[in-house]
Amino acid sequence: MLNSPTDFSALGFALAFLGGPMFDPATTALLRAVLDDVCADISRFETGARAHVASRILQAAAEGNVAPENLKKVGREALHDAPTIWRQ
What we know:
Layout: H1 10-18, H2 25-38, H3 47-62, H4 68-81
Helix pairs in contact: 1-3, 2-3, 2-4, 3-4
């Protein structure tokens, strides 16, 4: 599911950890783009916050909610609800 052995982003982590559904390449690219957009101000090293947001985005996609704006809304809500230790 990951594009390369070194591609272990928060989305890749959430996919691997949660054992979620397999998405086609276009949907996977969309999910990555949404995650990057929502977490633009979050360091890539803040894996806890990014994984939290990724898991919520994946859950929405698994439920059939793959409209980009809806996924961004889900992601922003997840980031807002993330424990404060994960946010700056």
